[in-house]
């Protein structure tokens, strides 16, 4: 006799497989965003250390405050979802500050070029994540709302950088490409380790 019904054991193994692959995806999203927002916080801290008392200080401070909010949200989510942070956390802490301070030392426009490069990569990254999360919008509602809001704020940071002369920075294309490549590598690394 032909059995058309799926056995309970088989059904539960499908459920567990789907559940564990969703858990892996969510872990990866939260781990990498937690690392990214930590890095962003440190980049703006580095920029403020150099340019805080210049005319660009209030502008950078405003973006920094938003990054602190992003970081705090992912600190909350990483605890709530019990996700292991990337082992690279201490490295991104130092590297973020050095990138922010280093480009700021090259001048205000180079600092803005850094912002534009980083935020370009982050906006693309958040859009990729939103497409993934759309596979189950009901289950991923909260995370999608958080990422959508942050994506919009990162886009504002990008536009602010453009409006404040990023593209007139010395060696803009080289600087931009080096930073974008570094950010993409940091994202790839933070997803897995
Ligand atoms: Fe951010
Ligand atoms: Fe940002």
UniProtKB/TrEMBL annotation:
The reaction(s) this protein catalyses: a 5-methoxy-2-methyl-3-(all-trans-polyprenyl)benzene-1,4-diol + AH2 + O2 = a 3-demethylubiquinol + A + H2O
Compartments, record wording: Mitochondrion inner membrane
Entry keywords, A to Z: Iron, Membrane, Metal-binding, Mitochondrion, Mitochondrion inner membrane, Monooxygenase, Oxidoreductase, Ubiquinone biosynthesis
Required cofactor(s): Fe cation
Membrane topology qualifier: Peripheral membrane protein
InterPro entries reported for this sequence: Ferritin-like_SF (IPR009078), Ubq_synth_Coq7 (IPR011566)
Enzyme class: oxidoreductase
Gene Ontology molecular function, alphabetical: 3-demethoxyubiquinol 3-hydroxylase activity; metal ion binding; oxidoreductase activity, acting on paired donors, with incorporation or reduction of molecular oxygen, NAD(P)H as one donor, and incorporation of one atom of oxygen
Function: Catalyzes the hydroxylation of 2-polyprenyl-3-methyl-6-methoxy-1,4-benzoquinol (DMQH2) during ubiquinone biosynthesis. Has also a structural role in the COQ enzyme complex, stabilizing other COQ polypeptides. Involved in lifespan determination in a ubiquinone-independent manner.
Protein name: 5-demethoxyubiquinone hydroxylase, mitochondrial
């Amino acid at each position: 006799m032909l059995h058309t019904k799926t056995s309970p054991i088989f059904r539960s193994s499908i459920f567990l497989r789907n559940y564990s692959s969703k858990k892996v995806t969510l872990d990866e999203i939260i781990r990498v965003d937690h690392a990214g927002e930590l890095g962003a916080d440190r980049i703006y801290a580095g920029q403020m250390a150099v340019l805080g008392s210049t005319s660009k200080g209030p502008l950078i401070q405003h973006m920094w405050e938003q990054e602190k909010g992003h970081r705090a949200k992912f600190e909350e989510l990483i605890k709530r979802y019990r996700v292991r942070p990337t082992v690279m956390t201490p490295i991104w802490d130092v590297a973020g500050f050095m990138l922010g301070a280093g480009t700021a030392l090259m001048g205000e426009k180079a600092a803005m070029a850094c912002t534009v490069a980083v935020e370009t990569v982050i906006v693309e990254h958040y859009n990729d994540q939103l497409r993934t999360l759309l596979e189950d919008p009901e289950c991923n509602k909260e995370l999608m709302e958080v990422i959508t809001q942050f994506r919009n704020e990162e886009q504002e940071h990008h536009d602010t950088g453009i409006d404040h002369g990023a593209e007139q920075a010395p060696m803009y294309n080289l600087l931009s490409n080096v930073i974008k490549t570094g950010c993409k590598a940091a994202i790839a690394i933070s997803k897995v380790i």
